[in-house]
Design brief:
formyl-coa transferase, domain 3, 2 domains, elongated
Length: about 400
């Protein structure tokens, strides 16, 4: 009989925190794996205290970031500095398929929970570690977050305008890219174990992951010795290429013209103003030489239109374009609504909240979404039911501060 959920029966012991680790285990949990998140009241996931918070209420169970990255998971509180806490972890390893962590390299070793230790407890265990530079090498001890990974991997040097300093893209981009690689590696390791009976140790790094996404710039340097830097919204192979103002406050439409036929189509849509036929706009190279002027002229036309109206009109003419949407626009987007891209879940602290669903659709299977857990919410279920700890022993461990 087929499993009800795609990853039903896979058990994950999740030490990860912040973004990069929790996103990877979120993918597994959303597709049916049982993910047990390990925290403590003294050392909770720092994502719990990362804004935004509903009504600016700073509460460990009210962070929007945490709630999004930890759907469908279970949460236990456990004091890993207590010897009995480590013994309980080892019992949880016995019933787990995967152990996930994204601490600075060395932390799991200091806890006595290296891969070598874990595979003695469960020989076919899979362990995945996520870090900035990886577990080996002269810089492996560097700690950091997604913004650090973006900077080191060269992304910030390419982000922003040529006459200004490098800028962040608005989110810790590496924290949402690396987990995709991590989760794929985990699925590969699970498949390898199914066919061989052997576990795996997975070492993923933010820097090496992110380098893949600037490969054109890297190849340009390898082949031509050219170091690419910031270009704002512009492109080496399209012009115009950017965002243009539309009617209303802070409303924009992205437009990209990749060839001369598209340029002709754009001129036709604009009503072929006299400046379109000027020699300085007659080829990609010439348009790029006069791009400031070109963008100014196009902006005087786009500002007359409502954003979505303009995007639709340009798309119908075969011109690559799209509305620049904000959070409100996304929730109101009819296309995303039809694809059930958002679901409302009720959280015990913040109440009803929209959650993005998984962007991957499997035929015949729809992931079942549960809201993120409160800290230690599933202590009794995990300790009493899964591990079978008797009531009197559970109460004794609780009084000793093991379940802090």
């Amino acid at each position: 009989m087929a499993n009800q959920y795609a990853l039903e029966g896979i058990n994950v012991l999740d030490f990860s925190w912040a973004g990069a680790g929790p996103f990877a285990t979120k993918f597994l949990a959303d597709f049916g794996a049982q993910v047990i998140k390990v925290e403590s009241k003294k050392r909770p996931d720092i994502g719990r205290m990362t804004p935004p918070f509903k009504n600016n209420l700073r509460h460990p169970d009210a962070s929007a970031l945490f709630i999004h990255t930890n759907t469908n998971k279970l949460s236990i509180s456990l004091n890993l500095r207590h010897p009995k806490g480590i013994e309980i972890i080892k019992k949880l390893v016995e019933i787990s398929d995967l152990v996930m962590e994204n601490f600075t390299p060395g932390v799991m070793g200091r806890l006595g929970l290296t891969y070598d230790v874990l595979k003695k407890i469960k020989p076919d265990i899979i362990m995945a570690s996520s870090s900035i530079y990886g577990q080996t090498g002269p810089k492996s001890q560097l700690s950091g977050f997604g913004n650090t990974g973006c900077a080191i991997s060269g992304h910030y040097m390419l982000t922003g305008w040529p006459d200004r300093e490098p800028v962040t893209p608005g989110i810790a981009y590496a924290d949402v890219v690396q987990p995709i690689f991590t989760s794929i590696a985990i699925l590969a390791a699970l498949d390898y174990r199914r066919s061989t009976g052997k576990g795996q140790y997975i070492d993923t790094t933010q820097v090496e992951t992110m380098v893949h996404f600037i490969s054109p710039a890297m190849l340009d340097y390898f082949a031509n010795g050219h170091i690419e830097t910031r270009m704002g919204n512009r492109s080496t192979y399209a012009c115009p290429h950017g965002v243009f103002p539309c009617r209303g406050e802070d409303r924009w439409c992205a437009i990209a013209v990749f060839n001369e036929n598209e340029w002709k189509n754009l001129c036709d849509v604009m009503g072929n103003p006299d400046w379109c036929s000027q020699q300085k706009f007659s080829s990609l190279t010439l348009r790029q030489e006069h791009e400031d002027e070109l963008e100014s002229l196009i902006s005087k036309w786009t500002i007359r239109f409502e954003r979505d109206e303009l995007a639709s009109m340009l798309q119908q003419a075969g011109i690559t374009s799209g509305s620049v949407q904000d959070g409100q626009d996304l929730l109101d987007d009819a296309h995303l609504a039809e694809r059930q891209s958002f679901i409302k879940l009720t959280h015990p602290v913040i109440g009803e909240c929209n959650h993005p669903t998984q962007p991957v659709k499997l035929s015949g299977y729809t992931p079942q979404m549960r809201t993120a857990p409160c800290l230690g919410e599933h202590n009794e279920y995990v300790y009493k039911e899964l591990l079978g700890i008797p009531e009197d022993e559970y109460n004794a461990l609780l009084s000793e501060g093991v379940f802090e």
